[in-house]
Design goal:
The complex is a heterodimer of chains A (about 300) and B (about 180). Chain A has twelve helices and nine strands. Chain A is α/β, with parallel strands linked by helices and about 300 residues long. In chain A, the strands form two sheets. In chain A, strands 7-6-5-8-9 form a five-stranded parallel beta sheet. By secondary structure, chain B is an alpha/beta fold. Chain B has one domain: Rossmann fold (3-Layer(aba) Sandwich). Helix content of chain B is about 30%, strand content about 30%. In chain B, the strands form two sheets. In chain B, strands 3-2-4-5-6 form a five-stranded parallel beta sheet. In chain B, strand 2, helix 2 and strand 3 form a beta-alpha-beta unit. In chain B, helix 1 crosses helix 2. Chain B is globular, with a radius of gyration of 16 Å. Classes of the chains: A alpha/beta (about 300), B alpha/beta (about 180). The interface between A and B is medium-sized, with 28 and 19 residues.
Amino acid sequence: MFKRKDLLGLKDLTAAEIELLLDTAVPMKEIITRPIKKVPTLRGRTVVNLFYENSTRTRGSFELAAKYLSADSINISSSSSSVAKGESLYDTARTLQALRADVIILRHPMAGAPHLLAGAVPAAVINAGDGAHEHPSQALLDLFTVREHRGEISGLRVVIVGDILHSRVARSDIWGFTKLGAEVRVCGPPTLIPPGLEQAGIKVFHRMEEALVDADVIIMLRIQKERQQQGLFPSLREYARMYGLNRERLALARKDVLVMHPGPMNRGVEITADIAGGPRAVIEEQVTNGVAVRMALLYLLAGGGAGHENDH
Amino acid sequence: METLKEKARILDSDGIRRALTRIAHEIIERNKGTDNLVLIGIRRRGVPLARRLAEKIKEIEGSLVPVGVLDITLYRDDLSTLAHQPVVRQTEVNFPVKGKKVVLVDDVLYTGRTIRAALDAIMDLGRPYNIQLAALIDRGHRELPIRADYVGKNVPTSRRELVEVRLEETDGKDEVVIQEKT
């Protein structure tokens, strides 16, 4: 039984709750393989996508997930709404509540924004990425994709490569994979690794050649070009040479390794084009699974009493 | 807290076996064989019942009838009234239902709401030639205009009673009992 009002991060969830979310995504995936991708489950429910940052995959898949479950969904992005006129997050949220939203999906550049929102409205709030904090639905789809291929997460070696410091995907993945019993390694330049990870049982590497040995899963993170101006790495070319995934490095991992990327990719920087399109990559599957996982989230959070204070 | 008292055993394992054998014969007779016939069991106990019917049909006619598994959770009409969402399990209908004679199988037919949900769920998978309904127990108290084509046993009950079908595959033994809320 999933008894939470909101999904703000994987840090708060128990392994059993994560497993329930993943188990629920399995039947949801069957629905999206049908010729008629529609079930009546969330008829009459309203889902709002509130995005203060750009997004293709996350927003698109939350919107499809809502539609496949027959909820009504609207998209509000900061550039085209009253947010551009200076409306605060709190007031925007109250407005959405007055429109009787049952679920609000929030992406925001500030860490903690979904927590603020969750406390302000009775609607279920789903964090679709807050600053450098968490991106739980991405981690859930990563877990789902790995579980689909390998059956179990426990005991796998998962390597996350890139800008760990600024990555909300990395944070949520670390929580998710460790809670389900995987060994998590991170790899990147020392300037892009947050301190204190070793104390949490994460193995930190600065050389790809060491990190990738016997890896079951490699998660490549997008390197943001603006980090170069901040002096965190010297040049994209050097970053690619040190931390790009290429054929030679891939060969160090297990033969059945899964290569993942949350997108959007910088082909030729963190990952070469032949690997991104090669047989070990499951990057497009991740996108499909993202819809299934988000359907599971909407089902578990939008059902029952969500958004209705008077329900028992 | 409500407790349940076992009131009567209405079928034992031989009773269940004989009822299923008769239903298997009736299905074959009504459909003039097994051409285009498929069985779809409703989770949870409709599934082993559908498999047993398929087994019996194979013994009688020598032909294999495909068996599918239907989870109707996403089609329930009471989702918005429940405090927490019920667990969804997978629908496994690995054959097209278009143009097929579909026999839905469930353990107990009661209000008819489960069957209403199952009809919608099947329609979403395709357009069958027809849909028939087999239930091991029909206990009455319908709330929708639905009836079964094949019934193992009609059991008049009161609404205070519960009919529990126990099967080897799910419960370790075959029997049907009536329980009463005390």
